[in-house]
Amino acid sequence: MKNLDLFWNAPLEEMKCGFKEEEENYKCLLCGEKIEKGIIYPNEGILYDASKYIRIHIDQVHQSVFHYLIAMDKKITGLTDHQNTLLRLFFEGKNDKEVQKETGIGSTSTIRNHRFALKEKERQSKVFLVMMELLKENEKNGSNFVIPHKTATMVDDRYVVTEKESADIIKKYFSEGTDGPLKTFSMKEKHKLVVLREIVKKIESKRIYTEKELNRILSAVYDDYVTLRRYLIQYGFLDRKSDGSEYWLKEGEEMLNRKEAVQTYMDTKLEAGVYQIKNNQNQKVFIGSSMNLKSMNGKQFQLDMGSYPIKKLQNDYKKYGKEAFSFEVLELLEYKEDEHLDKWDALKKLEEKWLNELQPYGDKGYNTKRSRK
Known about the structure:
- The protein has 373 residues and is of the alpha+beta class.
- The chain contains 16 helices and 11 strands.
- A 3-stranded antiparallel β-sheet has the order 1-2-3. A 3-stranded antiparallel β-sheet has the order 6-8-7. Strands 10-9-11 form a 3-stranded antiparallel β-sheet.
- It starts with a helix and ends in a 15-residue tail after the last helix.
C-alpha cells in the first residue's frame, strides 16, 4: 500500500504526468504498475513502446491523473463537494454558461466568481507549498506522517500517525516480526489501521481470491481471521462480491496482466466497430467505439469491479445488477486489408453516425454531448 507515498514524494512535474522513469521501466505513481522498457505493447490494434504505453495505461486504468486526484477523500484534497463538482466541470472544458445550467447555481457571473475563488485558492496553495518545503529544509527532526490509502472509506483523526509511531505499533503487535503472528487485535482504532496496513501487504494486487484462499492468508496472521477480513473491507483495503465468493485488493482491482494482454493480442484477429451497453431496465444506452471490440470484456470487468469511468452508468450497474445490462456490437468497421484508410477517422465517423441516430443523452442514455466551441 505504498502507492500514495510514491506519489506524494515525487516532484511536481512527475505528479502531473502520473509516472516516473526508472532505469529499466516506467512506473505509474498512482498504482505502482511497472511498464518494462524494451517491450512493445499492443492497444486497440496499435503497437506502442514503453514511454507511450505508460500514458495509455494511465488513461485506461485511471482515466487521468486529474480524475484519480479528484476522486480522493475531501480530507486529502481539501476540497468541498461544491468545489469538487466545479473543478470536474471546468476540467471537462465547459464554459460558465454550461456549468451554471448543469449545476443550477446562481448566474453565469456567479460561476465566474467561483473560477476566481479557485484561482485564489491556487495562489494560496502555492504559498503554503513553498512554506512547507522551507520548513522541511529547516527541520532536522520533523515528523513524517503516514499517508492514508486512497481507497480509505473515511479519513479522520485515526489516520494521524507518524512513520515512527507506525513502526513502534508494528513492533509492539508483531513481536516476532511481520512474518510472525499478530499478538492481539484488541487495540485502539488508530493502531488497528496501522496493523491492517501491514497485513494487507500479504495480499497480491491484480489477483482475485476465493474466501477460502483469503482466510488461509489471514489465519496465518491471527486466529480470528473473520474479524480481520471484516475490518479490511470496512476500512477500504479490500472489496468483494456481494455473495462473498470473491475478494480483491481495491488498489489492484483495475490492473491487467500485461504479458497475458500481449499474448491475447498476438492470438486474436482484431475487429473495430461501434458498440452499445444497454440498461434493459430503463432502456438507457451508452455508445462507444473501439479498434478492438474484444476489449469489451474489459469494460464489463471494470463495471463488475466498480471502476468504470462513466459514473452514471456505473451507479446504475450497481443499482440494477449486471443481469440488467447487455453488451452489443452495433456495427463493424468494414475495410479491406490492403485499402488505404484512416481507420481512426473512419471509426470516429461511424460512432458519430450512431450517436446521431440513437441520441443517447439525458434520459435516453449515458453519453455526454461534446461541447461545440
